[in-house]
Amino acid sequence: MTETATAGRALPHPERSEIRLEAVLHALSDPLRLQIVRELAARNTELTCSQFDLPVTKSTSTHHFRVLRESGVVRQVYRGTAKMNGLRREDLDSLFPGLLDSLLAAAGRQCLRLGEGA
After folding, report:
1. Residue 117, in any domain of the structure
2. In percent, how much of the chain has pLDDT > 90?
3. What CDD domains does the entry give (predicted)?
């Protein structure tokens, strides 16, 4: 695992070679985590945890971001007091070509089908 730190605060992340398909699929199997990933992909930039409109408590939100980080789906780094989240698209596309795009497209179609908006 690599450590990414600013001002002495580090968060563990799996190296690219340590990312496992089953961990990625597990992380993306939760609707809220999938929502987070969809927003990161759509905005194509790093976002703070508070920029996501999640209908859960802060501790539950923290849990979801931790699952995404520990599975290798997102990278979290501190910038000052803000914890920034970025999609590890390059790593995921290298390891599992087409997977992320297919999942994001399927999630978008599902939202439209269920009337949840895209």
Report:
1. no
2. 71
3. HTH_ARSR
Tell me if 112 is assigned to some domain: no
DSSP string, 34-76: HHHHHHHHHHTS-EEGGGS--SS-HHHHHHHHHHHHHHTSEEE
The Cα 82–Cα 80 span in angstroms is 6
Give pLDDT tens digits for 34-65: 999 999 999 999 999 888 988 998 889 999 99
Over 80: is that where the pLDDT of 86 sits?
A: yes
Domain assignment of residue 114, yes or no:
no
Q: Is residue 24 part of a domain?
A: yes
Whether 13 contacts 75, CB under 8 Å: yes
Please say if the pLDDT value at position 92 is more than 90.
yes
- Count the domains in the chain: 1
The amino acid occupying position 69 is R
- Map residue 85 onto helix, strand or coil: strand
Q: Is 43 exposed, middle or buried (0-12, 13-18, 19+ CB in 10 A)?
A: exposed
| Global pTM value | 0.87
